[in-house]
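Whiteboard transcription, Tuesday session. T.W. wrote the structure tokens on the left side:
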């Protein structure tokens, strides 16, 4: 069992990324929304480029789930079919230079942001940040 979801992205011009992202764990909106927000806030150079944002999101997810079993990609035309077998269905985000929006399920966003993952002292953003590679420091001689 997992807590599965399909994540799809499009830009403000309506161009959809051709690869849907499947997450096996942490597929609830409270987690998926945090992954999207962390990616958007951390990688400012990719905010207005759908393909750069997609790969940076995969980078964040891959670091968060280092087991190699929790992150998959599917052709976009299979997204709805794959989402039928997921606990949380499909989350479709519009990504733009000035923000992001969850299409068709925006009413669920505020409830997700009130989840304990967001409000605990040790919140999901700290957990995501800890999962990212740390820059190597040069030895001082």
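and on the right, the sequence the group agreed on:
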């Amino acid at each position: 069992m997992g807590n599965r979801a399909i994540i799809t992205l499009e830009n403000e011009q309506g161009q959809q990324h051709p690869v849907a992202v499947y997450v096996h764990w942490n597929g609830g909106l409270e987690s998926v929304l945090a992954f999207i927000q962390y990616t958007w806030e951390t990688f400012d150079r990719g905010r207005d480029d759908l393909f750069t944002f997609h790969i940076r999101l995969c980078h964040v997810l891959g670091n968060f789930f280092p087991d190699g079993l929790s992150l998959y990609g599917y052709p976009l035309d299979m997204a709805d079919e794959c989402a039928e077998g997921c606990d949380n269905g499909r989350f479709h985000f519009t990504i733009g230079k000035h923000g992001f929006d969850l299409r068709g399920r925006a009413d669920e966003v505020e409830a997700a942001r009130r989840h304990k993952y967001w409000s605990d002292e040790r919140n999901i953003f700290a957990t995501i940040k800890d999962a990212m590679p740390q820059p190597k420091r040069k030895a001082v001689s």
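Someone added at the bottom: Strands lie at 5-11, 19-23, 71-75, 90-96, 99-103.
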